[in-house]
């Protein structure tokens, strides 16, 4: 049994070392953002193709991000408020369906539910099924 477990251990250690080396080689991810003109810029993994291999830190300003190697220039992306891409509800989105159903059901008159409830109360209070058929 001992002979079979040795190569397995070596394989596990080599795999672990490769994962650690790969993690160290990859840098921070610069999240997508809206630039100063409001245009959406896609995020990217540091270093990019044009950067030096040690440019593994996301640097710059919230409106202009780039990869660098200086920890002093590191951008605190958590403090940026321009990194959320606005998503407009499409025709099939849940928000649109929920809001549309309410708008279509009520129309633009907020007193409609009150009027319906008042009418139903009158019908139920009358106690007669004739009142129900006469009003419907």
From TrEMBL:
GO terms for cellular component: AMPA glutamate receptor complex; dendritic spine membrane; postsynaptic density; postsynaptic membrane
Keywords assigned by UniProt, alphabetized: Membrane, Signal, Transmembrane, Transmembrane helix
BP terms from Gene Ontology: regulation of short-term neuronal synaptic plasticity
Keyword Signal attributed: yes
Main location: membrane
InterPro entries: Shisa (IPR026910), Shisa_N (IPR053891)
Every Shisa N-terminal domain range: 27-82
Signal peptide location: 1-25
Annotated compartments: Membrane
Region (Disordered): 75-119
Protein known as: Protein shisa-2
């Amino acid at each position: 049994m001992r002979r079979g477990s040795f190569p397995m251990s070596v394989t596990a250690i080599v795999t672990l070392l490769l994962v650690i080396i790969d993690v160290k080689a990859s840098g921070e991810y610069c999240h997508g953002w809206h630039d100063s003109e409001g245009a959406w810029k896609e995020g990217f993994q540091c270093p990019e193709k044009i950067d030096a291999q040690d440019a593994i830190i996301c640097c710059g300003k919230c409106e202009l991000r780039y990869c660098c190697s200086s920890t002093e220039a590191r951008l605190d992306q958590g403090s940026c408020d321009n990194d959320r891409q606005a998503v407009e509800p499409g025709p099939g989105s849940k928000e649109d369906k929920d809001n549309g159903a309410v708008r279509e059901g009520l129309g633009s008159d907020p007193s409609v539910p009150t009027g319906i409830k008042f009418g139903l109360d009158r019908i139920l209070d009358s106690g007669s099924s004739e009142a129900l058929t006469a009003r419907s």
